[in-house]
## 1
Amino acid sequence: MATTTATKNTKPAAKPQGPKKPKVKEPDIYVWEAKNKKGQKVKGELKGNNLTDIKAQLRKQGYPNAKVKKRPKPLFGGAGKAVEPADIAVFTRQMATMMKAGVPLVQSFELVADGLENQNMRKMVLQIRDEVSAGGSFGGALRKHPKHFDDLFCSLVESGEQSGALETMLERLATYKEKTEALKKKIKKALTYPIAVLVVAFVVTGILLIKVVPVFAETFASFGADLPAFTLFVLNLSKAAQAHWWKILGVVIIASFVFRQARANSQTFADQVDAFSLKIPIVGAIINEATVARIARTLSTTFSAGVPLVEALDSVSGAAGNAVYRDAVKQVRDDVTGGTQINVAFRATGVFPTLLVQMTSIGEESGSLDTMLEKVATHYEAEVDNKVDNLTALLEPMIMSILGILIGGLMVAMYMPIFQLGQVV
């Protein structure tokens, strides 16, 4: 009887794999335009998988003859635009509005995401929605994006969830973020305008020295007469600029890079820069008042949310934005932990203005510390606004004077020999 032997190295049968789940395509956004029953033009946006789907939705809404087209993608930066703090402020305000209107949380995320043009921001909002719809908390979903939502933001949202007052907390957070961003814009306005104008002035001066002055130098060489001292100085400056412009540019670029790296990697150096910035004439006063406003606004928001004072001061130190005030707030926190009244602790640092100390004292006595701090924040925000406007008005004539001295001086130096030659003739 013949026997058959099974091959020993026969491979076991592979386990059948289930069908791969197809990736869910994100619906496209279409823009439409139609006329209503009164003959008025109406337009809007709808999400759908294709053009037929959108037209079917519009027919149900009573617009059978609507013109529909897919919303074009932005040519520059639409998909790659980074999420900015201003985007977070808008998101917070829209969520607060939705929650106050009684819209469910998950649906609020969807409605807010639909109106966002920044695709990265929209993607992040939808990720938060998915976390919440899967059973997670709002605060926990935000903590998965620490680059855009700091501990203060997440803690306040979690506090609102636990107390059942999420819409109120989002309202406070929206106001806080809007005020903070407005303050940052004012500081940038105060610093960017003069720096930009001076950079342009020096670039124009460099071009004149390297390209224009040498043409005059060739003309002067044929005069055969002594040149004025000012003209000689400009010609020598032009020769130095032609020979070493690339070295000067390299030093500026390297110095900027080294400065940024040192500030990012050395806490000591960054603290020294922060301390120096407070001593700059005019600009230092603006930075001081802006920092006090930010501290007062943050402390008011956290304290009104029911956060214990010591924990609130921890959050304030992280949001101060300046090393001098950060260390001062930490000192206040330690003093308050030891039983000192907060107004006494503020005064002991020697950093905070008298108005903040006095308003804090009134707030402690009346039991309305958050209200008093909010008034302090509003006052200093208005002061920063006024100082920025005054600084801009003051700098305009100064900048014009600098431009006149630099560019006008070069032109005078070039034409002085021509004027002297005319007098001799």
## 2
Amino acid sequence: MRYSSAVERIDGEGAAGWGVHFAAYEARRQGEDVIILSIGDPDFATPEPIIDAAVDALRRGDTHYTDIEGRPGLRQLVAARFSARTGGDWGPQNVLVFSGTQGSLFASSLCLLEHGDEVIALEPMYLTYEATLKVGGATLVRVAQSAESGFRIDPDLIAAAITPRTRVIVVTNPNNPTGSVATRQELEAVAALAIEHDLWVISDEVYADLVFEGEHVAIASLPAMAERTVTVSSLSKSHAMTGWRIGWAIGPATLVEHMARLGLTMSYGVPGFIQEAAMEALRHHDAAVADMVNTYRRRRDLVHRALSEAPNLSVLCPQGAMYVMVDVRGVAASATQFAWDLFHATGVSVLDAGAFGPAAEGWVRISFTIADDDLLEGCRRIVEFVSNA
């Protein structure tokens, strides 16, 4: 039987990187002594009042169809927070609610890209980007940000990759997997290229609240960028709500109208009781986010300090997000081999960062989203493994 060519485009090369992670989960189900450092799923529980808001909404019968674009109250809250962050004038007409950042990115891709277009993605980049950006038939143009620079944005490399077919530049700020936070100057350089060549920018800012050093700058806040930027984000990381699947896209009103029609055919709206929980999160729980940031900062320092004791490892200290990148080229022939050998020898799972793109080959990503004692034990096992290699 014949299938659409789209089934090939939604199969990104990075999918194989999850092999160790899936093996670790299966081993845990079998009762084995496993420490999972391979996924960015916060160990925090969603704050109780947010859960209560969803339960109360359910008990009130909030189980019916709701606004395709998202409830006006939620869209207004998202717009108000983004306006405060950027100094701009955003309203609910600029916001569309989707099932997480991933859903927002997918919709942005389908509304902005088509066959013959090129989309520039800075790597290392999140694993799903490849398939998400190529699904409509566009060509993905990878622009590697070098390990030697700390995986910083290099505007000259972006400029060199732009062709007459380029339509979109994708940035992630803070970055997953590297934890780098783009400076204002770096973003200004990207913005200048977008304006010069009349390009869209898709900015994934799901980790914007999880910044430890430096200033988070939304590229949409820069001059002349509001009308050409789509900002995607969610509550998954900031409020420990990964499983709730609630996020949004922020952009020009006309684009939001197009995305709403797409939403009509994809999901027919996000459940109302989840949107009620999201409104509770946005209204009242900034203090909980601040506590999480402090915890993540402490865990980051813990991992950096512990792994720096290992011979022949180089540890990149992140400015944001919830991951530490570790260069294992001094101890293994490949990061894939390192990850599997580490798992078989110690029960610790880490992610081969090469899955995020060739720029990160030879590095592994370690998540610091588990309890301190388990995190310390995981680091101890890694140091022992490397020391005995």
## 3
Amino acid sequence: MGILDFLSGQFIDVIHWTDDTRDTMVWRFQREGHEIKYGAKLTVREGQAAVFVHEGQLADVFTPGLYMLETNNMPIMTSLQHWDHAFKSPFKSEIYFVNTTRFTDLKWGTKNPIMCRDPEFGPVRIRAFGTYAVRVIDAGHFLSEIVGTDGEFTMDEISFQVRNIIVQAFSRIVAGSGIPVLDMAANTQELGKLVAAEISKVVADYGLEIPEFYIENISLPAAVEQALDKRTSMGIVGNLDQYMKFNAAEAMGSEDSAMASSMGAGMGAALGMGMAGQMGQAGPWGAAPAQPAPSASQAPAAPPPAPAEKVWHIAVNGETLGPFSRATMGRKAQAGELTRESLVWTAGQDGWKRADDVAELAQLFTILPPPPPPPAS
């Protein structure tokens, strides 16, 4: 290497860092074999801080701006005197750039359920998760306490430790807050502020702060959530006695329909078997031979029972009246107690309907006699 190349290598450096990543917190300036020279220009952009380390010790922290490094680390005359080091100074200086912007949308969550005492349910276990943001507020302290001599330090290298601090603080605050589990969803903002304040006290020792902290969800174990769903369903049902009566009436209607279907199938099968027997005993020309008189042991089987009669219920002023047979419904129609607008229900019917919309009851209003004529004058 010629003397001119050597001297040109000793002149002014331009030291700066443009971050093209999303997770780098600290980056060491790469000198590519050259020491930092006298009068080098240091550019620190907004959202950055530069830490100057001289001879292994933290010398200074530079905030955003343009600086001339007028140190005695390696001026031209000094380097020319170090012949035994091949023109390389044994005293090294380094520049570490620290990203001071916010690292956002970082995730946190409880690995295991947190035990707490609820004033309504007693001991319960809850889980929680959310997001947070972190920022370096003391670049020198952060470099000396966390980074050390790491040339490229990313957020992933410290996020695990920050998450542990968050979960510990969250567990302690939630367990001692006394807020009922059912009210925690309405108090996540207040809980988040308490947790963020507690976390900031710890991470301040690392040169960090937590400017944002959010609780997105607080959940209970699956078994407890199922029990709460049942309790909610009972509250929606309201009057349990009326609900049980309604279910019983529906079950009776279903049983009556099933019984009628089975009875109809049985009667059809019996008729089919009787006709087949008569045809088998008929003569060659279709004339049935004389049948012997049945003995006492061959007495005819009793006829099947008549199908159950359909009954109706009437809704009057929020109450359910009935059940009434069709004949009774006809008498009520004649007496004016049942009108076309009356709401009625029977087993197998989809909800309450107007009496005029039910074919079996609409006939009751069509066969009523017209009003009597006025008396003769």
## 4
Amino acid sequence: MNTDKIIDIMEPDAQLTEEQLQQIQQDAALREGCEDLFMAAHQMSIMENKEAPDTEEELKKLHKRIGIEDSTDRNEGQRHYLKTTTIVKYLLAAAAVFIGAILILKKGKPAEGIILAEDTSRQEIRIETKDGKSIPVTTVLADNQSDKKLVMHETDESETYTVSVPYGQSLEITLSDSSKVFLHPGSKLEYPSRFDKDSREVHLKGEAYFIVAKNKEKPFIVRTERSQTIVYGTEFNVRSYNQSNETVTLIKGSVGVRSKEDRHPIQIVPGQQAAFCNDGVIRLSQVNIEPYTSWRDGYFYYDNEQLQDILINLGKYYNMSIECHYPELLKYHMRFIIPRNKDIHYVIEMINRMDKVHASIQGNTILVNP
């Protein structure tokens, strides 16, 4: 959505289109900016009074907050200045989209019916250096016939890379020490072209399954926003998305896990999962490891899981929107195993065979009905 067009939406009586509404749902950074802005404009009072915000008044508050004088009677030069100032562009876009979205959400589809929105950004695996330079990516089909495969070779010069895997794709990457990482859709991994003398350290955002090459002299460390996992050679899964509790699940061997605030790691054993909860507590539990090893081997494995969790997982893997306006359906529990190299039509057929819900595909959206 072009920023100039967004600013034009600020004009009186303008409303947001369905396409623009989808963008706010898909862009986490934009959504967070909108939420922050609207909190400053006293969100609750506006919503409770059921009144549309005064657009010009909100703009005045916004301009005051970022240090720009404003006038209700803006001339063309002022409008041009606003449109060509990068940071102001972003904030104006956030204001316009969020204010318009309030009206759409009231009049259109209920927000709770949209479970997941597809990612319409560039859908390709990317590798970038720390200074933002893009590195060409050459992949082949992995042995599990489901993931793309990338092998990194050690170089003489040390460089830090970040590989980004978009929704709709997954990647098996072999690091320079021969450790393997199975990256889920929507994940990022930061790693060096060669590890230093004392340790092997990577940074993860999203979810990945690790098979770490043994080296008792150099621990392998996985860092996330909340935690640190320390191993010497083992298999484990790390899930670290912003919107949910973080988990580390051990498949083989032994690992130590700790939060950023803890000095000493907690040891977990195979079949245990450590959950880093929002209250700061690390909770241990016994779990079924089949879903994690099945993913590694190229299968979806759902064992008595809620339909909502299954749909979100499938939506990310196939990069599709999920829509359901019957919340009670999402609580159903299902168990099935499907190869990940099957297309989405096959998966939907398998879900429908269970006779609990009726799922269908319209465009790039999976609709779930009774």
